[in-house]
């Protein structure tokens, strides 16, 4: 069985849009954003620390590499407000969720 280690990750920015990165599971720590840190921890797991600009707290999520590879989509959100902060998974699934959101935000900004 061939392991696909590619993952797409979308991060919510201050302007309420998402930036999409296409990465490999082994270089996730190279994301150039100040509001997230990704660290490999024991037992082949990744720890995601996300600074939430909505509730101003740090949210911590731990997922095994196996879970990330198996699932089509994982949404990491603000626990207080229920708003997605990070979306990761297969490229097609992440884009299907994020592109409409960014498009609506673009239209709202054009109107304003």
Short description:
This protein is 24% helix and 40% strand.
Blueprint (SSEs and pairs):
Blueprint: E1 6-12, E2 18-24, E3 36-41, E4 45-51, E5 58-64, H1 65-70, E6 73-77, E7 84-89, H2 91-111
Antiparallel strand pairs: 1-2, 1-7, 3-4, 4-5, 6-7
Descriptive overview:
This protein is an alpha+beta fold and about 110 residues long. It has one domain. The chain has two helices and seven strands. The chain has helices spanning about 65-70, 90-110, and strands at about 5-10, 20-25, 35-40, 45-50, 60-65, 75, 85-90. It has a four-stranded antiparallel beta sheet with strand order 2-1-7-6, covered by helices on one side. It has a three-stranded antiparallel beta sheet with strand order 3-4-5. The longest helix has 21 residues, at about 90-110. The chain is globular.
Oligomerization status of the protein chains = single chain
Q: Count of DSSP E strands?
A: 7
- Main beta-sheet annotation: 4 strands, antiparallel
- The number of distinct structural domains comes to 1
Helices and strands: which structural class?
alpha+beta
Approximately how much helix is present in the residues? 10-25%
The succession of helices and strands, N to C, reads: EEEEEHEEH
Strand order of the largest sheet: 2-1-7-6
CA distance, first residue to last residue: 51 Å
Give average pLDDT, whole number.
Answer: 88
| Low-pLDDT regions | none
As a percent range, the share of strand residues is 35-45%
Anisotropy-based shape = globular
What Rg is obtained from the alpha carbons, in whole angstroms? 14 Å
Total helical elements = 2
């Amino acid at each position: 069985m061939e392991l696909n280690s590619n993952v797409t990750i979308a991060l919510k920015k201050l302007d309420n849009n998402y930036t999409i990165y296409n990465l490999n599971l082994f270089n996730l720590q190279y994301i150039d954003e100040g509001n997230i840190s990704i660290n490999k921890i024991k037992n082949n797991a990744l720890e995601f620390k996300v600074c939430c600009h909505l509730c101003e707290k740090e949210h911590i999520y731990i997922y095994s590499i196996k879970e990330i590879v198996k699932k089509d989509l994982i949404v990491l959100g603000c626990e207080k407000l229920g708003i997605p902060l990070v979306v990761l998974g297969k490229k097609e699934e992440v884009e299907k969720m994020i592109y409409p959101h960014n498009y609506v935000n673009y239209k709202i900004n054009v109107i304003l």
